Amino acid sequence: MDFDDGQDRIGPMYRDRIVFITGGTGFMGKTLIEKLLRCTEVEQIYLLVRTKKGKTPKQRLEDIFANPLFDTVKKEKGIDALLAKCVVIGGDVMEPDLAISNADRQLVIENVSIIYHCAATIRFDEALKKAVLLNTRGTKCMVELAKQCKKLEMFGYVSTSYCHLNVKFLEEKPYPPPADPHKVIKAIEWLEDDVVDGMTRKILGDCPNTYAYTKALAEALVVEAMNDIPCVIFRPSIVLPTWREPLPGWTDNINGPVGMLIAAGKGVVRSMYCSSQSYGDFLPVDFGVSAICVCTWNFIGRKDYSRNIYHLVSSAEVKQSWEEIIELGRTITCTKVPLNGVFWYPGGNMKKHRWEHNLAALFFHWLPAVLIDCLLYVLGYKPVLCRVHRRIAKGFEVLEYYANNQWDFDNTTVMHLREKINDVEKVKFKIDADGVVIEKYFEDCIMGARKFILNETDDTIPAARRHMRIMWFVDKFCKTIIYGAFLYYVGLWVFNKMFATAF
Question: What's the pLDDT score for residue 148?
Answer without folding.
Answer: 96
